[in-house]
Amino acid sequence: MPVPLVLFLPALPVLQAPSGPEPAAQLAAARAQLQAGHPEAARPLLEALSRRTPKDPAVWRLLGSCALQLKDPAAALAACRKVLALAPEDPTALYNAGAACARLGKADEAFAWLTRAKATGKVDLSQAAVDDDLAALRGDPRLAALQPAPGDFARPFVEPATVLHTIVGEASGDQFGWIARDLGDVDGDGAHDAVISAPTKALGGPAAGRVYVYSGRTGRRIWSADGQPGDTLGSGLEAAGDTDGDGV
User: What is the pTM of this model?
Assistant: First the structure.
């Protein structure tokens, strides 16, 4: 009589889809909370997201900025180290690591991070003069040495150029000129005009930002638009073109 063959298979784990919103949507929600001035609401979103996507430097970068806003420099430094383990020359993380160390009273470490941030060529350290996170470093000659010098702007163009107008920002630390674009002829005088941003201009609070439009013919200001504290209005900027078909 044949002997029945019985196979014993190990139980397979049941795979469940991750709960909650998609990581991109959750990151956007956290960023919106930060821009609205609610870092305490953004933090739990980012902490949960860091557990779901621990290898996403954007999550850790935003978490570091959030911790700085909440005056938690130890957590900010830890988040910056996570970013730098994934993207070693990330300019935002290098700068924020310096700011966190300054808050922690570790001046030498702060300057080491800030020097690395400047070496990337992607950080405008003029903001250091007005950044509250770096207040403990003011008066230290090493901070002044990190500031842009006149010689840095002696040869600003890579091709031959004629300077038509020189436009100066309203205050130190505004980052005036962060972005400048050809806007087309908005005042109808036959010359193209320019839009220029100052994303860290303080208006009723830090980092509100202001966007300016200047005449290409005369250099005068045509109009400006202001952000709210934390908006960094003008950190991204493009010309929209003639959107309503009126010829402007």
Answer: 0.65
